[in-house]
Design brief:
The protein has strands at 5-6, 8-13, 21-27, 30-43, 46-53, 58-64, 69-74. By secondary structure, it is an all-beta fold. It is globular.
Length: 75
C-alpha cells in the first residue's frame, strides 16, 4: 500500500451520519466509482474503508471527522 495523501471529491452515502459508505472519488484526475466496500472500521477520529473500484483497483480511504478531511492510499 502506498502512503496516504489528501483525497479529492469523495462522494459518500450519508443517511444517519456523514460518511457511512463511500460511493466515488477522484484519483489522478479520474472519477472512480466504488463497486464494493471490502471492509470498514472506526478510528479514534473517524472512519476507514477498504474499497474496490469498478476497474478492480483497491484503495483505502480514511475520513477524519474532526478536521472533515478525507485521505486515500492505493493498494
Amino acid at each position: 500500500m502506498s502512503e496516504f495523501v489528501p483525497a479529492q471529491d469523495v462522494e459518500c452515502r450519508s443517511e444517519t451520519a456523514y460518511a457511512e459508505r463511500p460511493l466515488a472519488f477522484t484519483w489522478q484526475g479520474r472519477r472512480q466509482e466504488v463497486a464494493e466496500v471490502i471492509n470498514g472500521w472506526r478510528t479514534p477520529g473517524g472512519r476507514g474503508f477498504r474499497v474496490r473500484t469498478q476497474d478492480g483497483s483497491v484503495f483505502s480511504l480514511l475520513y477524519d471527522e474532526h478536521d472533515d478531511v478525507w485521505q486515500i492510499a492505493e493498494g
